[in-house]
Amino acid sequence: MKTVSSGVLESLNACDVQGKVRLGVSLSAALLENRFERAGCFSWIFVFCFLFLSVSADVALSQDEARIMKRRQQGILTGMPFMANIAPRTFVDALGRTLFLAKAPVRVVSMAPSVTETLYALGLEERLVAVTPYCDYPPQAQRKMRLGGTHPSPEHIVALKPDLVLVPQDFIQPDLLQSLDRVKVPVFVLRAAQLEDVLGQIQMIARMFQRGKAGDDLVETMRERLNGVKERIQSLNRPRVLYILNSDPLQTAGPGSFIHQLIELAGGMNIAGEASSAYPRLALEEVLARDPEILIFPVGTSEGIPNEEQQQWRRWSNLSAVKQGRFVSVSSALVDRPGPRLIDGLELLAQAIHPEAYADESTRKSP
Question: How far apart are CA 225 and CA 209, in angstroms?
Answer without folding.
Answer: 25
